[in-house]
Design goal:
This protein is mostly beta strands. The protein has a single domain, classed as Porin, CATH 2.40.160.10. Helices cover 9% and strands 49% of the residues. Strands 1-3-4-5-6-8-9-10-11-12-13-14-15-18-19-20 form a 16-stranded antiparallel β-barrel. Strands 16-17 form a two-stranded antiparallel sheet. The longest helix has 23 residues.
């Protein structure tokens, strides 16, 4: 072969390889995740009442092993020029206890573009209102330490618009999210869901265009943290009433926190949740709040405490019997009272390393006469008016 041609071929090959290496270096993919489990004893304190109002049969006192939002996460990012980058995340549940199989990317998962303008993404993602509350609550939202049912009327994961319709703690399918860049400690996010369900509806459908809107704004200045959020559900059906014909259900959230001495964060969350036009123009509203402490005591020792209150429901909604009054996890009885719940929970954690934590946990919920919020998750549901207590151990590992 001609030496000049050979040199040119080799130079071309090196150039192609160099371009390939440069291209590969502009794109990154990582794998991470966490395993979070608790094991403990559930004590149901008393017989409580049935849906019909009769004295109930006490629930079994038992031990249980629970998965607490374990997941594995694949993330990726590529520089596409012009100061922009494409990014994605696929988060999948990971349950080593033999729990139900989950779909790939059924937890927070999305694809989008980001740059100096902030970021915009589409996918299955926590709403801005839920993400704001998580900044002030040091506990997971599910299992014995969680307050999903008490504070937000159940948790809704990987859910469509009108699925689990009463919940205001949502990982929402088909969500479009814009996050603004942080400026002088201020950041904000806005999201809306596409009305996918409407593609199969006709003009006579009861629920024609269900849609969610959610927004939050937060400010951080040294040890001080403040936040506000608003979420609206349009054309949902929170009580599954056949006569239901549209809604504008909404939630306002306020959050505040302050870190003392760099190690003790005291925070609080307040929610005002309102359901309108549940049936025949009837409405229902609930106020919930929680206060929390997260103290890195010294070295590997850490203490977390929480106290939450769900007030009694207000408004005109009354389904006629306790069983028919349910709006998600809450009972509406036209403001007659005794529909709230109070929960105290805490844990001591010991860090074996930066990634592994062991601990002891305690939680107790006291239900009013017409409330049946569980201290845990799954089928561990109490009778109305029944208290529940949890004593247990926890293990957490991040990778």
């Amino acid at each position: 072969m001609n030496k000049k041609l050979m040199v040119a071929a080799v130079a071309g090959a090196i150039g192609t390889l160099g371009a390939s290496v440069a291209f590969a270096q502009s794109s990154t993919v990582s794998l991470s995740g966490s395993l979070n489990f608790n094991y403990g004893y559930y004590d149901n304190g008393g017989a409580g009442f049935t849906n019909a109002g009769a004295i109930g049969t006490p629930k079994v006192k038992t031990d249980a092993l629970a998965n607490q939002e374990s997941e594995w996460v694949v993330k990726g990012e590529e520089n596409v020029g012009g100061g922009m980058a494409a990014f994605f995340q696929c988060s999948t549940s990971m349950d080593i206890t033999g729990g139900a199989a989950a779909n790939m990317c059924a937890r927070n998962s999305f694809i989008g573009l980001k740059g100096s303008f902030g970021s915009i993404s589409v996918g299955n993602y926590d709403t801005p209102a839920k993400r704001l509350a998580a900044q002030f609550d040091p506990f997971p939202i599910s299992a014995a330490m969680g307050q999903g049912g008490q504070m937000w009327n159940a948790t809704a994961s990987n859910t469509a618009n009108a699925a689990t319709p009463a919940s205001f703690s949502r990982r929402q399918q088909n969500l479009i999210t814009y996050n603004m860049p942080t400026m002088n400690g201020f950041n904000a996010s806005f999201a809306w869901s596409s009305a996918n369900e409407a593609t199969a509806a006709n003009s006579a459908s009861t629920i024609q265009k269900p849609r969610l809107w959610s927004a939050m704004a937060a400010y951080t200045n040294g040890p001080l943290q403040l936040g506000i959020a608003y979420e609206r559900h349009v054309d949902y059906n929170p009580a599954a009433q056949a006569a239901y014909t549209g809604s504008n259900d909404s939630m306002y959230t306020l959050g505040a926190g302050y870190t003392f001495m760099g190690s003790l964060k005291v925070s609080g969350v307040y929610n005002s949740i309102n359901y309108n036009n549940i049936t025949a123009g009837q409405d229902m509203s609930v106020r919930t709040w929680g206060i929390y402490g997260d103290w890195a005591v010294s070295g590997p020792h850490r203490v977390r405490l929480g106290y939450g209150v769900q007030g009694s429901t207000k408004g005109t909604y009354n389904g006629g019997t306790v069983a028919a009054n349910m709006v998600g996890s809450w009972v509406g009885n036209a403001g007659a009272g005794q529909t709230g719940a109070q929960k105290l929970h805490g844990e001591y954690a010991y860090a074996l390393s930066k990634r592994t934590e062991l601990g002891l946990a305690y939680a107790k919920i006291n239900n009013d006469r017409f409330s049946a919020i569980t201290v845990g998750t799954g089928s561990n549901n109490p009778n109305f008016g029944e208290s529940q207590t949890f004593y247990g151990m926890l293990i957490r590992h991040k990778f």
